[in-house]
Amino acid sequence: QCTYLEIEQAERTHAVVLSRPAWLWGAEMGANEHGVCVGNEGVWTREPVGEDEALLGMDLVRLGLERGGSAREALEVITALLERYGQGGSCKEEPVPFVYHNTFLLADRTEAWVLETAGRYWAAQRIRGERALVLLGGRGALPPPLSLTPLPAFAEGSRNISNQLSIGREITAEHAGLRQRARSQGWWSGDGEFSFAEVFSLTHQPARMEAAKARYHAGKELLRQHAGHITAETFMAILRDKASGICVDSEGFRTAGSMVSVLPRDPALPCIHFFTATPDPSRSVFKPFVFVDGLKPAPQVRSPTFRDDPAKQIPRFQSTVDRRHELYRRHQAALELMERDQERGQQLLQTLRDLEKQGLEGMNALLGGTVAPSLEELADLFFDCVEAEMKFYT
């Protein structure tokens, strides 16, 4: 059972960690036990968006992670389900529908893909690299995520996306009927090279797309400036950049959650995923998560469930509920303190940065082989980091 649609079950699924809007089944971004990372964002194209309930792009993120043992497999899962079931339905927990199509970034230890869609049609671009790191920042709440800025790999530079089609002529794989669709609609004559972005982008973009263009170019420039010496800390700084529009906390928009993943090529080393689990990364803590057996649950970052959930009643979204988890509540209270008392707020922020630095140093030592934590310590890692953060808020 996905957000709106029930689909056939897979024989087996992989363990996943998800950053998701609490009202729906899917996720904006996440990772699985095999080091596959996927994130999505909204896009508007020449293909009409449909309010009929189908799979959300966020459902496809989770399905790709649960059923794909590599980035390529996850892409195949997503495109097959997209072609079979389509995408559609409101992506916003409000009575007035908010509908969009989706772009995705998928990465594993050895390669990455950009996947962009227009209705049931799609195009994908493969990105190779010697080492993969991914940064994802979702803007949520009102409206749902409008910014994910991922960087998949070092060796061939960087790749970022931001609410617009970005795959031009560098298409690695595509929907079998993609070009015929473009010709039948009069969007492409069939002459010359085929550019997915040029052919399927709207002639007149919505106003919100102008901000997306600015974010895209700013993100590309920030990545270019750090080319050759990018670290997980670099990614965190980019996700916190307010001047570029990548990090937003104003006018009803908020960067709702952020994720940075380090995916070593050496399979003997663990993949490490850092999550804020709270909004506005400029005032949040990135906390490390590693897949091991016996993981300790972190109920502090699980949103509550509701017996009569307005997202599941027909008609939907006729009432509201408070979906904040415990860490989110304490984080918000701390933000209010930081705004009321600038001096104490800066002290708290510095304390949080020190906590984050400890986590980063510990994970760098783990990857460098200078420390070897026990499986029990790794199983408790994320829980312990969340608990430490909550104590500072208290």
From TrEMBL:
GO terms for molecular function: cysteine-type exopeptidase activity; dipeptidase activity. It holds the Pfam family Peptidase_C69. This is Secernin-2. It comes from Chionis minor (Black-faced sheathbill). Belongs to the peptidase C69 family. Secernin subfamily. GO terms for biological process: proteolysis. It comes from the Eukaryota. InterPro entries: Peptidase_C69.
